[in-house]
Design goal:
- By secondary structure, the protein is mainly alpha-helical.
- The chain has two domains: 54 residues, Roll (Membrane-bound Lytic Murein Transglycosylase D, Chain A); 172 residues.
- Helices cover 67% and strands 7% of the residues.
- Strands 1-2 form a two-stranded antiparallel ribbon.
- Helix 7 packs antiparallel against helix 8 and helix 8 packs antiparallel against helix 9.
- The termini are close together.
Length: 242
């Protein structure tokens, strides 16, 4: 029975297949097999390699967290993100004194999300997931300020940046787990970014019932994304083929 923890390594200066094989506890032939066409004597800095790390012929050690706990933690982390984002948007739109406190708490959330992925992804990938999620929050904050001040171009630019960050986040997540579809992750994350913008525009127009409906829909979609992320982790890291 073969267990494979698939990672994506970005080639840096000084990398060789021998050093990478030692780093990821695999072999040079295994790396070349995963990357057909690669020239082992001319690795291109900035290009990527798929590496199956920690390959073993015995039953792998399962992640320490149970599947049930994984489902619960993922849902809690993403629900916290959704709810705090709503609180923050409200605090900006209505000029509430809670704004800084909510943002401070919201910026802790990417670490809570990343703590889940650190059990399955490399340290570099986990750090990138955290950084991108933090960027997404800051871009949402910029968009909120722009909408509050009726700066439509700035709001559009911030929304575009949020979508770009969503695409980058989807890429990192899907590169580290073949059970994920990059296109599906992009769709879910971009829908979330678009919903944030729609909520704020509706609040600025005084259409509060409609804004609440968007928020309720976003909450459901966020739980769908949490379940998709959890299912992909279970499929790739908890189950093995015969």
């Amino acid at each position: 029975m073969i267990y494979c923890r698939l990672v994506t390594h970005t080639i840096k200066s000084g990398d060789t297949l021998y050093l990478l094989a030692r780093q990821y506890h695999t072999t040079v032939p295994a790396i070349t097999l995963m990357n057909p066409g690669i020239n082992p004597y001319n690795l291109q800095i900035g290009s990527t390699l798929k590496i199956c790390m920690g390959e073993t012929e015995s039953q792998p050690t399962r992640p320490q967290m149970s599947e049930r706990q994984l489902w619960m933690d993922m849902r809690e982390a993403l629900a916290t993100n959704c709810n705090l984002s709503k609180l923050y948007m409200d605090s900006v739109m209505f000029d509430m004194p809670t704004r800084d406190a909510v943002m401070s708490r919201l910026m802790q959330n990417p670490e809570e999300i990343t703590d889940i992925f650190t059990m399955f992804y490399s340290d570099d990938d986990a750090d990138e997931i955290k950084r991108l999620w933090q960027n997404k929050i800051m871009q949402m904050s910029t968009m909120a300020d722009a909408i509050r001040q009726s700066e439509q171009q700035q709001a559009a630019d911030a929304a575009s940046n949020m979508q770009m960050t969503a695409s980058q986040l989807a890429e990192v997540l899907s590169n580290g787990n073949p059970a994920y579809s990059r296109q599906e992750l992009e769709r879910m994350m971009m829908n979330q970014a678009n919903a944030d913008r729609e909520q704020m525009n509706l609040m600025m127009d005084g259409r509060y019932p409609q804004a609440l409906m968007v928020y309720e829909d976003t909450t459901g979609r966020t739980m769908d994304m949490a379940d998709y992320l959890t299912n992909g982790l279970i499929q790739n890291f908890y189950q093995t083929g015969e």
